[in-house]
Design a protein that fits this description.
The complex is a heterodimer of chains A (162) and B (349). In chain A, helix 2 packs across helix 3. Chain A starts with a helix and ends in a 5-residue tail after the last helix. Helices cover 68% and strands 0% of the residues of chain A. Chain A has 162 residues and is mainly alpha-helical. Chain A has seven helices and no strands. In chain B, a hairpin with a 2-residue loop joins strand 1 and strand 2. With 349 residues, chain B is mostly helical. Chain B contains twelve helices and five strands. In chain B, helix 1 crosses helix 2, helix 8 crosses helix 11 and helix 11 runs antiparallel to helix 12. The chains are: A mainly alpha (162), B mainly alpha (349). Chains A and B meet through helix 1, helix 2, helix 4, helix 5 and helix 7 of A and helix 4, helix 6 and helix 7 of B.
C-alpha cells in the first residue's frame, strides 16, 4: 500500500471505524484512542498490506483492541445479561433510529458489534466471523438474538415499527 | 483333495458353531484369510447376515414438526433470520402463515426489516493527524506558514508604529516615578547586602509627587547593585519640598528608573537585556519606523521591520529591491531560509 492509498484509507475509513467503535464502546475518548492506535499500527505495516485487504484488517484490529479494553474495564462486559426492563423509554415518539441506538447500548458487546458490522458496513456473516473471530453460526445467532432484543425493546416502549 | 475340502468344511462348521478346538480355529481363520471369496458363501450358508425388518415400530408422523409447533421465541428468531434473507421465499411465507394461524402474537417481516440501524453523521475528529504528507509538501507548507507569519508581523509593526509614537509623545515622565513609588511605598535602606525597612513616612505616597522644575531634590545618587560598603539612601521629606525621588536598590532588585533620566525627560528602561530584550527590540523597530516615515517609502518601512524581526527572533529574512531584466522595471525580492519570492513593481509613469 502506498502513502497515497494510506491517506485515502484514512479519509474513507476513519469515520466508519470510529462510528463502529464508538457505538460499540459507548465512550468517545476511548473510541478516538482505538481508532488512532489502529491507524498507527496500519502505518507500521503499510508496505506489507494490500490496499484491498485493509478494511477488514482495520476493523479486525480495532475490534480486538476494543475487546481488550472491555476486558480490562470491569464496568463493561462482553456477554452481560440483557435486561429489557431498563430499556423502556419515556417518550415513545422519539426518532426510531435514536431509539434503536439507545436499545443497542443495552445489548451485550458482542451482539452490539456484530449488529453494527452488519447494519453499518453491510458485512456478510463470513466477513463478520473473520473480524470477530467467531464462527458463522455464532454470528448468525448473535445477530438474530440482538434483533429480537431490539424488537422486544420497541414492543415494550410502545413503538410500532411497521 | 476331496478329503481335504471335506475336512476344511468340517473344521469351518465346527468353527462357526463355536466348538472348534484351538488348532481348528487357527486353521479356519488362516484358510479364510487366504480365501476370502469363500467367506460370502459361508455367511450365506450359515445365515449370518441381518435382514432389514419391514415392521414399523411406531408412527413416524409423531416426529414431524411444523412452524406451529414452535414457541414465540423461536418464531421471533426465525422471523429475524427471514428478515436477514437467510430463508427462502417459500419458507418465509410458510413461517408467517403459521404465525398468523397460530396464537403467537402479531409478527411481521417488516418488524425486523425496520430494525436496521442507520449510522449517525458522526466522524473521527482527528483525521488530519493521521494523514501523512510527503517531505516536499511539508516544506511548502512550512514555507507558507513562515511567510504568512512574517507578513503578519510586518503588518503589526506598520499598524502599531503610529500608535506607539503617539503613546510615547503623551507619556509624562512623572507617571513612571509615581507608579514606581506607589508600587514600593517603603523607603529602602541599603546596608551592605542586607535590606532594612525604614519607618513609614507620615505623608501618603501620592503626596510625594510635586512639580518643581527649577530646583533639584535632595537625594543621594543611586547605588550600584554590587555595593559592599555600608551606605544609606535617604529621602528628606521634612519640608515637603517638591521631590522626585530616586529609588535605588541593590542585590537582586534591579533599578527600574533613573532619576537623571527622568529629569532629562527620557523614557529609557534600564532593565537588563535578558529581561527586556523584546521591549528594546520593539522600541528600536518603532523608533526606526517613526524616523523613516517622514521621508522613506513603504519598501523601506518593510525592510526596516524585517531587519528588526531578524534581530528579535534570530531569523534570516531579507527584502531587496532589485532591477529587473528589462531595464528600469524593478522587483522586490523576499528571501528566507525556507522560502523566497519575487514581486515585480509597476513601472513609474
Amino acid at each position: 500500500m502506498t502513502v497515497k492509498e494510506y491517506n485515502i484509507t484514512v479519509k474513507e475509513l476513519a469515520d466508519p471505524l470510529f462510528r463502529f467503535i464508538y457505538r460499540s464502546l459507548k465512550e468517545r475518548d476511548r473510541a478516538n484512542d482505538i481508532v488512532q492506535d489502529t491507524f498507527e499500527k496500519l502505518w507500521i505495516i503499510v508496505a506489507e498490506i494490500e490496499f484491498g485487504a485493509v478494511k477488514p484488517w482495520l476493523f479486525r484490529t480495532a475490534y480486538n483492541r476494543m475487546i481488550d479494553v472491555i476486558r480490562k474495564d470491569s464496568r463493561l462486559s462482553l456477554v452481560e445479561c440483557y435486561d429489557d426492563s431498563s430499556l423502556i423509554t419515556e417518550d415513545p415518539q422519539e426518532n426510531l433510529n435514536e431509539v434503536l441506538h439507545k436499545a443497542l447500548e443495552k445489548l451485550p458487546a458482542i451482539q452490539r458489534a456484530v449488529i453494527l458490522l452488519r447494519d453499518y458496513e453491510g458485512y456478510s456473516y463470513q466477513e463478520i466471523a473473520s473480524i470477530t473471530n467467531l464462527s458463522e453460526s455464532q454470528v448468525k445467532v448473535y445477530i438474530f438474538r440482538g434483533r429480537v432484543s431490539l424488537r422486544r425493546y420497541l414492543e415494550r416502549a410502545g413503538i410500532t415499527v411497521n | 483333495m476331496e478329503n481335504g475340502r471335506k475336512n476344511i468344511e468340517e473344521i469351518l462348521e465346527r468353527y462357526f458353531e463355536g466348538i472348534a478346538g484351538k488348532s481348528d480355529i487357527k486353521m479356519a481363520e488362516d484358510y479364510l484369510l487366504m480365501h476370502p471369496e469363500y467367506m460370502e458363501a459361508f455367511e450365506e450358508k450359515w445365515n449370518l447376515r441381518l435382514e432389514r425388518q419391514e415392521k414399523e415400530f411406531f408412527p413416524e408422523e409423531i416426529l414431524y414438526k411444523s412452524f406451529s409447533d414452535l414457541d414465540r421465541e423461536q418464531m421471533l428468531l426465525l422471523a429475524a433470520a427471514a428478515a436477514e434473507g437467510d430463508m427462502s421465499a417459500e419458507e418465509t411465507t410458510a413461517l408467517f402463515e403459521a404465525i398468523n394461524d397460530g396464537c403467537q402474537g402479531k409478527i411481521t417481516l417488516s418488524d425486523f426489516k425496520n430494525l436496521k440501524l442507520r449510522p449517525f453523521e458522526e466522524g473521527f475528529r482527528y483525521k488530519s493527524r493521521l494523514l501523512k504528507i510527503n517531505p516536499l509538501t511539508r516544506t511548502i507548507r512550512r514555507g507558507v506558514i513562515y511567510a504568512l507569519a512574517a507578513a503578519a508581523v510586518i503588518t503589526i509593526f506598520i499598524i502599531s508604529a503610529p500608535l506607539s509614537r503617539k503613546t510615547a509623545d503623551t507619556i509624562n515622565p512623572a507617571t513612571y516615578v509615581a507608579a514606581a513609588i506607589t508600587k514600593k511605598t517603603e523607603t529602602t535602606e541599603v546596608t551592605g547586602s542586607r535590606y532594612v525597612t525604614a519607618p513609614e513616612p507620615s505623608v501618603k505616597s501620592s503626596e510625594k509627587m510635586y512639580s518643581r522644575p527649577d530646583t533639584k531634590p535632595v537625594v543621594t545618587e543611586p547605588k550600584s547593585e554590587t555595593a559592599e560598603t555600608e551606605s544609606v539612601t535617604t529621602i528628606d521629606l521634612s519640608e515637603r519640598e517638591p521631590l522626585i525621588p530616586t529609588i535605588a536598590f541593590s542585590g537582586d532588585i534591579r533599578p527600574v528608573m533613573s532619576y537623571a533620566n527622568v529629569m532629562a525627560g527620557e523614557n529609557k528602561l534600564l532593565s537588563t537585556p535578558k529581561e527586556n530584550w523584546i521591549v528594546k527590540g520593539f522600541n528600536g523597530a518603532i523608533a526606526g519606523i517613526s524616523n523613516l516615515r517622514k521621508s522613506e517609502d513603504s519598501f523601506e518601512i518593510a525592510d526596516k521591520s524585517i531587519k528588526e524581526i531578524n534581530k528579535l527572533l534570530g531569523w534570516n529574512m531579507q527584502l531587496e529591491k532589485v532591477a529587473a531584466t528589462d531595464g528600469d522595471r524593478e522587483a522586490i525580492t523576499f528571501r528566507s531560509d525556507l522560502v523566497s519570492f519575487s514581486k515585480p513593481l509597476k513601472k513609474k509613469q
